[in-house]
Amino acid sequence: KYECTYCGKGFSRPSSLKIHLNSHTGEKPFTCTIEGCGRTFSVLSNMRRHARVHQ
């Protein structure tokens, strides 16, 4: 089990913990690839959902 050092929430996978940690640190490592947009996201699936606004 992988535990968040900020809030103690537990995760079964280290990748899930890493995504969760972004909510505490404010890190947004995923950037919209559409030229001129530049929006950033802490969760990859949120960026993919956002990309639909450009279609």
Automatic annotation (TrEMBL):
<dbReference type="InterPro" id="IPR036236">
    <property type="entry name" value="Znf_C2H2_sf"/>
</dbReference>
<keyword id="KW-0677">Repeat</keyword>
<keyword id="KW-0862">Zinc</keyword>
<dbReference type="GO" id="GO:0000785">
    <property type="term" value="C:chromatin"/>
</dbReference>
<dbReference type="GO" id="GO:0000978">
    <property type="term" value="F:RNA polymerase II cis-regulatory region sequence-specific DNA binding"/>
</dbReference>
<feature type="domain" description="C2H2-type">
    <location>
        <begin position="2"/>
        <end position="29"/>
    </location>
</feature>
<feature type="domain" description="C2H2-type">
    <location>
        <begin position="30"/>
        <end position="55"/>
    </location>
</feature>
<dbReference type="Pfam" id="PF00096">
    <property type="entry name" value="zf-C2H2"/>
</dbReference>
<comment type="similarity">
    <text>Belongs to the krueppel C2H2-type zinc-finger protein family.</text>
</comment>
<dbReference type="GO" id="GO:0000981">
    <property type="term" value="F:DNA-binding transcription factor activity, RNA polymerase II-specific"/>
</dbReference>
<dbReference type="GO" id="GO:0031519">
    <property type="term" value="C:PcG protein complex"/>
</dbReference>
<keyword id="KW-0863">Zinc-finger</keyword>
<protein>
    <recommendedName>
        <fullName>C2H2-type domain-containing protein</fullName>
    </recommendedName>
</protein>
<keyword id="KW-0479">Metal-binding</keyword>
<keyword id="KW-0805">Transcription regulation</keyword>
<dbReference type="InterPro" id="IPR013087">
    <property type="entry name" value="Znf_C2H2_type"/>
</dbReference>
<dbReference type="GO" id="GO:0008270">
    <property type="term" value="F:zinc ion binding"/>
</dbReference>
<keyword id="KW-0539">Nucleus</keyword>
<dbReference type="GO" id="GO:0005667">
    <property type="term" value="C:transcription regulator complex"/>
</dbReference>
<keyword id="KW-0804">Transcription</keyword>
